[in-house]
Structure formats: C-alpha cells, structure tokens
Amino acid sequence: MKIPVIMLSGFLGSGKTTLLLSLLKESKRRGLNPGIIMNELGAKDVDGYILQESTGTRVEKLLDGCICCSRKEELPRSLTALLARRPDIIYIELTGVADPDEIVRSLLTPPLADRLQLHHAVTLLDAENVLEYSSRFSSDKQLVRTLRQQITTADLIIVNKSDLVEPETLWKIEKMVYKQNSESEIVFTHYSQINLAPLLTGIAVRGLKDSAPRRGPGNVSGAALQRMNTGSSSGSSATAVHEPVSGTDSSFSQVAAVTLTVPPAWAGSLRREELEQFLQQWGYSLLRAKGHVRLAGEDSVQLVQLAGNRISWEASSYPGQPYIVCIGLNLDEKAISRSWAALFS
Ligand SMILES: Nc1nc2c(ncn2[C@@H]2O[C@H](COP(=O)(O)OP(=O)(O)OP(=O)(O)O)[C@@H](O)[C@H]2O)c(=O)[nH]1
C-alpha cells in the first residue's frame, strides 16, 4: 500500500505552517498517524517547535538548506526513516523558496515511487504580497521562476491572508493564477482555514484501507471572507551565524538566512519597540524573520514573526537560548550583525 503525501509549498510567510497545524489536528481527530517532514532554510527549527508544542507530533526536521537543491539528497533518507514509523499520511512542508516540481520528481523516482503516492500538491499564496513578487524580486530571476513553479505545480492553490486585502486584489490574483495554472482549484481564505475534508478524502488508518487512497472531489471551500483583526502589533556579544544556502542548482541563489542570538547576559533586556525597529529597517530585503525572545517587562517568552513586513507576537514556552532567524534577499549580513550587536552595547 502506498502512503499518501500532501506537499505544502508557498513563499516565505504565506501560511504553510498555519495550514499544517490544522491538518495535524484534523488528522489526529480522525485517528490517523501523521508523519511530517519540515524543511527550514535557517539552522533553527522555529516551525517544528511550534508544531511539536501545539500538537505533540514528532517532526522530521531538515534544517539549514533547501531539499529541492542544496539538501536534495537528504529527502529520500528522511522519508525512509519516516516510513519506518508506519504513518497513514505524510506531510512535507517545503521552504518558501523551494521548487515543488523538484520534490515531485524525487517522489516519482524509485525507490520512493514504490512506497509513496502524491495525494495533493498545495500552494499557499500571500494575498497581500503575491502580485508584487515579480517586480520586487526582479534582481533574482531564479527566485521569480521558482515562485511561478509553485503555482504551476499545485493542484490546490490557497490564496491566504485575504483579510489584509480588498476584493479587487483577490480578483487580480485569481486572474494571475488562472493564466499560469488553469487546472488547479483555487480558494480564498485567511489563517489557512479551509474545509480539510476533501484534502483528506481516501486517507484511512492503516489496516482499515481496502484500496489505494484516492483523491476526493474538489470543493475545498475557504472560510467566508471577512476582515478580521490580525493580532499584529505596530520587537559578552550578540552573535550572527550566516547560513549561505549553497548548491550549484540553487533555486534561490540570492536568498540567505542569518541566525542572531541574544547574549545570555542580555536576555530579558530587549524592548519590543527596539526589536520591531530593528526588523523593519531592512524593508523588503528582509523577507522573513522568526524566533523566540524574552522582552523587558514580560514574563513569558515571545514568538516574534515578520512576514511581508508585518510583525506579530505571541506567547511561547520555548525554553532555550533566545534567537531570531532572518531570511533575506541580498541581505547585508555585516550591517545586520552590526545593528543587532548595537542593541546590546
Ligand atoms: N493577517 C494574517 N496573518 C496570517 C494569516 N495566515 C498566517 N498568518 C500569519 O503569518 C505569519 C506566517 O505564517 P506561517 O504559517 O508561519 O507561514 P509559513 O508559510 O509557514 O512561513 P515560512 O515557513 O517561514 O515560510 C504568522 O505570524 C501567521 O500567524 C492570515 O490569513 N492573515
């Protein structure tokens, strides 16, 4: 019996982990044993920690590079390890700059092809930013190509973050998607809330299956569109570890990750506004930031996220040394490190 795979792709911060959280909760509710592979560009496992903390599910992590290129050879190894745990369904969350077509190719190549079956290729789009990508990233043609590939490879496209845009923008996005992929289903939603049933149709607990999983009928309708409050707000030596995302056939040649750590002596001294200013000064060259920090005057550790130039905060129980992973296009690593160190001088 082949194990069904649902692949989640989409640019940085588009809502993949938010969707995966819902899928995991729904999988558990159905008594399924899910296997998860999560790939992160940075060396820190921010999303894996969020998933483990919220659902208790073990996550197979592939950090510090992209499994469509620089860490390509690690995917078969991780999938083989995961299969030994006899999952009913495997979710693969790609990095925001991964070419999903490369992953589909790996899944269709023996020996993986003998054991796995691609059930759905889902791509999330950030409604607030997706129409700007071609002009914003015009200096990185490879990245623009990869983002197109994310649209053309999908059989389900979820236009997420629709709470942040006007209906006109959604129509433009629909037109843009249709031009590139007229076959896929497209839904509009916020916080990745969609009807999960069609995605999981045909997936059953091992032993209860009498045939190979089949795709369900379409109709993955999103939640009713409505404006909603995002909950976002308008934050020895500090170290910066640069993680060049290498690989000869890299799909994201100019995208790199930097991990910034807070010196132990300064933990709990950062002010929220200071950190927000630090993150916002790089404009769109800082594509994504996420990490756990301890702020002055706050009891709990905070999970801070920057996506599409918006910053959000939520309480976290992360027990380790505070850090932030910054992912950017042509980021000036020296300037970032200097600016970060200045926060602690
Ligand atoms: N306003 C708004 N925020 C959202 C929505 N969906 C997700 N977010 C927020 O956007 C940020 C990024 O969401 P994630 O689900 O982590 O995105 P991702 O695609 O997994 O991000 P990476 O894996 O880092 O590429 C988080 O702070 C989410 O809470 C939405 O529909 N509307």
UniProtKB/TrEMBL annotation:
<dbReference type="InterPro" id="IPR051316">
    <property type="entry name" value="Zinc-reg_GTPase_activator"/>
</dbReference>
<keyword id="KW-0547">Nucleotide-binding</keyword>
<comment type="similarity">
    <text>Belongs to the SIMIBI class G3E GTPase family. ZNG1 subfamily.</text>
</comment>
<dbReference type="InterPro" id="IPR003495">
    <property type="entry name" value="CobW/HypB/UreG_nucleotide-bd"/>
</dbReference>
<keyword id="KW-0143">Chaperone</keyword>
<feature type="domain" description="CobW C-terminal">
    <location>
        <begin position="255"/>
        <end position="344"/>
    </location>
</feature>
<dbReference type="InterPro" id="IPR011629">
    <property type="entry name" value="CobW-like_C"/>
</dbReference>
<dbReference type="InterPro" id="IPR027417">
    <property type="entry name" value="P-loop_NTPase"/>
</dbReference>
<keyword id="KW-0378">Hydrolase</keyword>
<dbReference type="InterPro" id="IPR036627">
    <property type="entry name" value="CobW-likC_sf"/>
</dbReference>
<dbReference type="Pfam" id="PF07683">
    <property type="entry name" value="CobW_C"/>
</dbReference>
<dbReference type="Pfam" id="PF02492">
    <property type="entry name" value="cobW"/>
</dbReference>
<protein>
    <submittedName>
        <fullName>CobW family GTP-binding protein</fullName>
    </submittedName>
</protein>
